[in-house]
Structure formats: structure tokens, C-alpha cells
Amino acid sequence: MAPGDPVEVLMTDGPQGGSGGQSLLSVEENYQIRAKKMGLDRPAFYLNFTSAAYPKDLYKIIKQDHRELVSRLVSKYGNAEAVNEYYTQLRNMLFAVAEIPETDELYDIRRFLRTTTDELFKDFAKDGIAFKIDTIKKATAPLNNLGLANTKKEIDKLSKSFNFLNAHAATYKLYTPSIHFYGLSNQYHTWMFGDYPWFQSVDSSGYKRLDKLYFNIAKFNLEQDSLSRLQKPFIAKSRQISEQVAANDSTKTFSGKEVDSLKVLQGEMQAEITTLDNSIKPLLAKIATLSIEKDSLNKTIKIYASRGFLRGDFGVSYANGLRVTKRLNDALFWTLLMNLFSILISYLISIPLGVQSAHWKKNSERYEPFLSSAAFIGALLLVICFYLHLSNMMSGSIYYPSLIIINLVFLLHALWEKETASQGKFSFASVAQFWGQIIRFRLLNIADNSILVLKLMYLWIWAFLFFAFLLLPVIAKIILISIPIAIWGIGRLRKTIATKTNNFSISIKGIYAKGSFIDNISTTVLFFMYSLPSFWIATLLIVFFTTKNYGELYDWFPTSGVQTIDIANDPHASWSTKYIDILYHLFLPTFCITFSSFAYLSRQMRGAMLGVLSQDYIRTANSKGLSEHKVTWKHAFRNSLFPIITLFSSVFPRALSGAIAIELIYNVPGMGLLVLRAIGERDWPIVFTVAMLAAILTMIGNLIADILYALVDPRISFK
Fold first, then answer.
1. Residues 623 and 517 in one domain
2. Which of 65, 174, 228, 260 shows a CA-CA span of 20 to 30 A to 322?
3. CA gap 115, 415 in Å, rounded
4. Rounded to the nearest 5°, which phi and psi values hold at 409?
5. Do 651 and 684 sit in the same domain of this protein?
């Protein structure tokens, strides 16, 4: 039901043929072979529920416009036999027109008949068909003895078949239901399961020989057509000279010497014609020999259309004839790379943020540090690295390792704070124990220390805020500094530093905020981010952070693409350089498809965690004296994962389908952009394959989610 004819798209010649030295009959034959290779010479499905007027073998008319013509005429007249007779005569008319000699006298009429016959294949109205047939008869009536006898004969047959069709309509058949059964040899079964043998190999030598025969025949036809085109001017010139010499016998226009010159010129023309004939005849002999072998091979070889979708055969692309698998592999790499990073970042930030938000909501009097002295120092160091790198005062070989070292040191400091807080005192033994656990990777439990991701997020948020502050004009900096001073006053600020207010407390160790206040602020920020359209944010990021129109330091990221061409084509570039360059290009598109998921995932985790923290067994664990950290991550966290597992089932199709808008804006050659272009190009095998794979991955995701339910909660079984 998809528009367009895939066979015509993949054929080198147009639907009416004739180019490359091929006759219309040869083009029709090639069309049939191509359709057979694609499995389009079969019925669409296992059965067809229709009316008795439609013939069972309608699918054998492979060309889409021809099949539509017959189908529309049957729906109008109900007499399939009469419609088929009219269609047969129309095809005979098409072949008769193609056989009209290509002479100057017949050029206009040949072109008119060809155009009108093509229009008849697209006309379903009674008056329109009658008018075109009458016009053809009137145009050819005055022409006699010009090689149109066969054409005029076919025109008369076409007119009679159409009159018979109008006189013998059987519309009552349209109201009689009928079911046609076709068995397994249909297009759907071939597309899904294939027609190749499942447990035995197929000898491909015959296919290769057949493809080579078609290639050679097309090549020789092209050569023969080129030579024929070269020969036509010599034939026309020779005919003209013959007419002049014959006319001179009566008119005596030319002298004897001029006649001799014309005869010499005519001899030269004939010599050229003979030379070209000698080159054309061997080609015609080769074409005839190869055609005989091709016809014999077509009768004996069994052509298989597909191995089937379930065996990884997704067909060929209508756009360029490449295998769909090849085009998907090229696009799938970038989509998976970008989406897997996005999914990883989303879960690493959203899950601990949701858990922490539940604690902020439940323990509203609790104060949490969101800017410690370590975060302040780390943020300043990051800002210094940013500025030096953007000012070309620090090379990439120093810049990237510096960022990694700063983040690792900050994480180690956070781990140290957690361990010393649990031990309650500082000693050399505690230091030795801490580093021993670090070396043995005992402190790097993801579930136990996932809250460190939030601390790392605070570090980067403050670093970007500090850096944005540095980029502001001097007046804006003064205003930002003077506002809190003007509101609170120097005395009030000193008092705030010394004592707790309702929401804040400030000390040497850092700035602390009340749990309920942080929960409200984080909720507002997350929902604000969730409400922003990703394509709008993507456009703003391109405008403000990929060009120098708004300042010399704002050209931070590339505008589009996934790689720097010079680095990608440099054979001496290391894999780390290429990998960093790819991450550098994918930073903005990955951010655009990630930031909106923070609110959804974190709120799901927060709601589930609040429900679990109110359970009786959590109160029992707290009354036993277990630490809050252990109660949260050892007891409550596992039982609050059900909403996250449910959402996790959508990860698989999301990782495959891609983000169409973001990939289009940043020109990322991923799956989303591939599908968008495939729809525009009517490249349906690409669209069908992506849709089918997304459906399969959705079912796989749901199955994995069900399995994870049982792993998380032993009370769940699949009995």
C-alpha cells in the first residue's frame, strides 16, 4: 500500500524503457525478473477477503500502475474477464506503438501515441477513456502506408474491447463476498520467514552467472545503441545524396563533376555505414547468444527472494540499492553511542537524586551541604582549566587529564568524608584502612556510593556558575554582588554566617540548606527543565555556544557533525584523540536528549522511595540502630526499583530509534535522521525494518523487566 513502485526505482531504465538500446519488451522482461528477485510476483498475504468480482490472480499483474488500473476498472464494472481483455489490448497497443519506425515523418505521431497510451494506463473514467481512444483513431486515420498498419489494427481492437466492457458490466458481483487462499508463497511470509531453505545451502553459481549475463547484455546493448546513434547521421546523409542524384536526372541541377563529387561522398558515407555495421553485427550476435543462455537459465534456476527478516535479511534500500543492514549499521553506531551515554547519565544522576529527594521530603529538618569547601576549591580549579584551555594557554594533552584528576581527587575526598563520618574519629589506622579498601575496590560499590554522583554534579554546577559569572560584564557582576548585600545588609549577613536561618546555615565547611528547601528548589528546577522543548534548547545551544557572534569565548563546541574531518582522516591520530573528538562533537546533542529525563526518572524514584520509607520494616531497621545510609541502600532501595524497572523496559527501543529532531539539528547521521530521510525518499525497507526492530525490542524490554521484577522481589514468580 506504500506509494511508489520499488521495481522501477531499482531498475536502471525507466518504466517505459528504450534507453541503453533496450526495447520495450526487454524492459518488461527485466521488470519481471527484478520483481521476481524482490518477491513481488506473489500475493500480498496468506488470504484475501474481497468480492467475487476481483480475480484471484490479480497479484500476477506486478506493475503497480497496471494493477491499479485493473483493480479500479473491476470496482467500476465488476466484469473481470472483460477488464482483463481491455488491459491485454492496451498492452498490445503499447507494444505496437513502440514498434513504429523512428523516421522523421512519424516522429510526431509516434510521440503522440506513446503519450496518449501512457495516459490510458492512468485513466479510469469512462468518458476520459472514450475520448482518448477516439482522439487516437482520428489522429491515425489520415496516415496510410507509413508503417502504421499494425498500430491501427491494435487501436481498433482496443476500441472494441472497451465497447464490450461498457456493454457487459456485472456490478452485482461486487456485492458477493469471496475469500481467496494463497498458502505460504506470499510476500508477507517471504519477508518475515524467507523462501531460502533453512537447513541446506543454496548453490549461488547460477545466480552469479545470471547476474553476469544481465550485466553483459545491458553493456552490449549500450554499445550497440551508441554505434547505431553514430550510424544514423551517415544513413540520413547517404539517403539525402541519393535523392539529390535521382532528382538531378530530370532537373540537371548539378554538373557532371558535381555529380561525381556527390557519388564519391555517398561512397564515403556507405563505407562509414558498412564499418559501423561490421561493429554492430558482432554485438547483436553476442546479445542473441547471451539471451539464449539467459532464457535457458531462467527456466531452470529457482530464484529466491529473501532469507527473511527473522534471519537478518532486511532487503535492499530503494534509494541506492545497498543492503538495509549496511545502511543501518552505519547509522546505528552513532545512535547507540549517543543514546547509551544519555541513558547512563540519566540513571546515574536521576536515581540518587530521587533517593536523596525522598530523604529531603521525609526529613525536612535535615540540612544538606550543597557547596562544601572541597567543592568550592574544585570548582575554582575547573574554572581555571576552562579559561586557560579556551584562551589557548593550555593544550588538550594537559587539559583533559587535569579535569580527570580534579574529579578523581574530589570523589576520593567525598569517600573519605563518608568513611570518617561513619567512624566518628580520625586516626592513622582509619587512613590505612580507607586506602586499603580503595585499593581492593571495596568502597566503589555503585549502589552504596551512588550519592557521590550528586556531589560530583554539585561540583560541575558550581564550576559552570562561576565560569558564567566571569563571562558577565562588569556591571552585571557588580549588580549580582550588591543585591544580597543590599537585601540583608552587612550585619544581617554576619548574623546569617554565625547562626542558622530557616533555610540556610553557613560555616567554614560549606553552605548548608534545609532539606525541605532543597527539595522544593530541586523540584522546581527539574520540572522547569522537563517543560523546555529539547529542539528549542538545541537551537539555543547552537546559537550561543557554537559561534563567535556573541563573544570570542563562546565558540566552545562544533556546530554540527560527529567528527572533525582532519582528525577522522588522519592515519597518525591515536584512538584516544579520535574518541575525545567524537565525545566533543556529541556533547551538546547528548545533553539535549538527556536533561528532560532527569525530572521524570527522579520523581518516579522519589515517589517509590517515599512509599517504601514509610513501611514498618524500615522503622524496624531504624530502631535496630542501623545507619541511615545502610537502611536506605540495603533495605529500601531494592524494593523501590519497580517503577525504574518498568521505565527501563523502554530503553531498548529508545536506544535504537534515535532522536529525529536532535539528529537533524546537529546533523548526526543516526537512526532518527536515517528514518526521516527514508520517509522522504520513500525508502520503505528502511522504515519497515526500524519499525519492526523497535517493536521486537519493546517486547524484549518488557520481558527483561518481568525477569528483573522476580530478581528484585523473591515473592514474584512466573508460575
1. no
2. 65
3. 81
4. -65, -40
5. yes
